[in-house]
């Protein structure tokens, strides 16, 4: 079918080429800034602002949001095992953000099929999870299926993600054929 490559080329041509600069702590803002968690903590520990030291991820002083940010930080630092250790102690294993990072870490550890299962579960719970869609699309790029990646890119755009970090990173991956190791 000739229309798929043509649609892909048109889509990429219309993609804004904004920078993929590192952003703040939200899901759609880019790579998280390093904090004390990855600067000072070892063995999956998380920095506790309350205690001003590294603590085990199951420590009651840590909120789910703090744990989630630590997961993101470890994942983007390439410390996938540390990220998964924290994911294991998170209370709500059906949270679409948690599922997204289970997918991300498994994909980076070479478990592509398992990663896709997590992305699919995250998206079924929250179809507007742009980050999970972007990571799923990047998994498709890695597998050589740019059409399925393009489908996720269109979903991101349709769901209000035009210009967002998930949209930009997936568009760049489709265009270059390369995904990102942060």
UniProtKB/TrEMBL annotation:
TPR repeats lie at residues 96-129. InterPro entries: TPR-like_helical_dom_sf (IPR011990), TPR_2 (IPR013105), TPR_rpt (IPR019734). Residues 1-21 form the signal peptide. Transmembrane segments: none annotated. It comes from the Bacteria. SUPFAM superfamilies: TPR-like (SSF48452). Keywords: Repeat, Signal, TPR repeat. PROSITE patterns: TPR (PS50005). This is Tetratricopeptide repeat-containing protein. It comes from Shimia gijangensis.
């Amino acid at each position: 079918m000739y229309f798929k490559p043509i649609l892909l080329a048109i889509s990429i041509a219309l993609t804004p080429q904004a920078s993929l600069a590192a952003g703040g702590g939200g899901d759609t803002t880019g790579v998280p800034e390093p904090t004390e968690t990855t600067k000072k903590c070892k063995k999956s520990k998380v920095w506790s602002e309350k205690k001003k030291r590294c603590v085990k991820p199951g420590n009651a002083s840590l909120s789910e949001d703090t744990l989630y940010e630590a997961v993101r930080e470890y994942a983007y630092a390439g410390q996938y095992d540390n990220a998964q250790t924290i994911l294991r102690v998170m209370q709500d294993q059906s949270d679409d953000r948690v599922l997204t990072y289970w997918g991300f870490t498994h994909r980076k550890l070479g478990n592509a099929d398992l990663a896709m299962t997590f992305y699919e579960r995250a998206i079924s719970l929250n179809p507007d999870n742009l980050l999970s869609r972007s990571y799923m699309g990047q998994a498709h790029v890695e597998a050589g299926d740019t059409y399925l990646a393009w489908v996720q890119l269109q979903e991101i755009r349709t769901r209000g993600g035009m210009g967002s970090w998930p949209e930009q990173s997936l568009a760049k991956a489709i265009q270059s054929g390369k995904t990102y190791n942060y």
